[in-house]
Amino acid sequence: MTEAVRQYEPVIGIEIHVQLATRTKMFCGCELSFGEEPNTRTCPVCLAHPGVLPVTNAEAVHFGLMIGLALGCEIAPSSIFHRKNYFYPDSPKAYQISQYDIPLCTGGRLGDVRIHRVHLEEDAAKLVHAGSSGRIHGAESSVVDFNRCGTPLVEIVTEPDLRSAAEAAEFGRLLQATLRRMGVSDVNMEEGSLRVDANVSIRPAGQASFGTKTELKNMNSFRFLERGIEAEVARQEQLLAEGGTIQQETLHFDPEAGSLTSLRSKEEAHDYRYFPEPDLVPMAPTEEMLVRARAALPELPAARAERLERELELPADTAKLLSFRSELGDFYETALAADSDHPRRLANWTINELTAAVGDGDPADTKLEPPVLARLVAMVADKQVSASAAREVLAVLIAKGGDPAQVIEAQGLGRAGEEELGDIVDRAIADNPDAVEKIRAGKQQAIGALVGAVMRETKGRADGGEVQQMIRAKLGE
Ligand code: ADP
Ligand code: MG
Ligand code: ZN
Q1: Could you tell me the distance, in angstroms and rounded to a whole number, from the CA of residue 210 to the centre of ligand 2?
Q2: What is the residue range of 469's domain?
Q3: pTM of the model as a whole
Q4: How far is 229 from 224, CA to CA, in rounded Å?
Q5: Closest of 88, 87, 20, 85 to residue 56, by C-alpha
Q6: Is the confidence at residue 465, as pLDDT, over 60?
Q7: What would the pLDDT profile of 64-111 be if each residue is shown by its tens digit?
């Protein structure tokens, strides 16, 4: 007899580091770096020369407050910075200024996921591994670029509310879209301005308490995040099935090999010898600061999706797609303001045809004007042009601009008229006696050959359903 396979439920909590798009660094006046020559954006403060004093960046605090308010957090009346001590060459001070037990924001929620806390801190320098070309005394060496050192970061920590890899990726995308909409960060995962760590554990279905968690570090896309969590859940399940126990540790997921490697056993808070930063005053946001942060918040993606769904009766997925990429939502809503007769059809054209043409780009950067898209979609709805011909028209409008009616006229893409279509159908019937024979014998699929012939002849200027109807009528079916 085999024992029933035990069902486990994944439990996941996310920690996200966001580089803030401020003009200057967290505690000094150095401008943020965007790929400048190494070590050109530094000063005595961020290089930790003796005797220097940090000063908190007001713009970073403003962004931190915006994020906290957007996530519905409680803002601490007075929060303080701590020193998180560690020794590694990416930190000239040998500590990071971060926040510990009194963070700027606590509590909150995004979608169904509770936010544990949001705090401000500073980024470390970047180690560049010179490899074998940079040998010193025979050993491979690394060099340090301090440009990134002291870049303002916000760390957002969720409660362990996520229950699958897909949910975690979905949450990450919503958070990314939200931060992007607020304009507080570039949120570019590949460039490291958004860095995601996932804490993963599993527990037998129905058990209330959590299992031991491991931490997956620094996945640089949401697709890898999802695959990494899936791999880690599978590893933990296997380990428990074999009678083993989960060790608390930090892991690296290699997306190419699909493998997980242990980086280190997990450190505890006391390993960092946290103590209050004596060189900084507490952050005590004034009412004026809070009012300003609240006023700076635009409509956020979750609220926009909810509004599009409610007011325009768009399907939830469609509303989400338009809201998670606000440039699509903006284009859509501007088009809709010009012609509000076809909200669903216009939405479908925006998320399907338009994105197929512009990829990840912004449709506003093309020659196509939003009201022109609305006009084209209205022509499809009014059967002045077939959907497939309209796709060709769209390609022209995106590349060259202009008016749909003119493009249709110039390229002969107008819908085939009743008479023209009738002639073409007659010809198709005459040219395909075999197919006609089969249809008459009851083989309905055979009509596809005739429809195909007509569509080829009209170069897509006819509607497939209509062609099919006409063929049936002519065959007396
Ligand atoms: P640590 O002290 O190890 O940093 P925290 O309690 O601060 O742990 O939690 C860090 C992150 O791990 C949070 O996102 C939290 O939701 C998540 N987390 C905590 N416990 C678990 C668990 N058992 N399984 C999965 N995630 C967890
Ligand atoms: Mg932690
Ligand atoms: Zn500096």
Answers
A1: 16
A2: 418-474
A3: 0.85
A4: 8
A5: 20
A6: yes
A7: 999 999 999 999 999 999 999 999 999 999 999 999 999 999 999 999
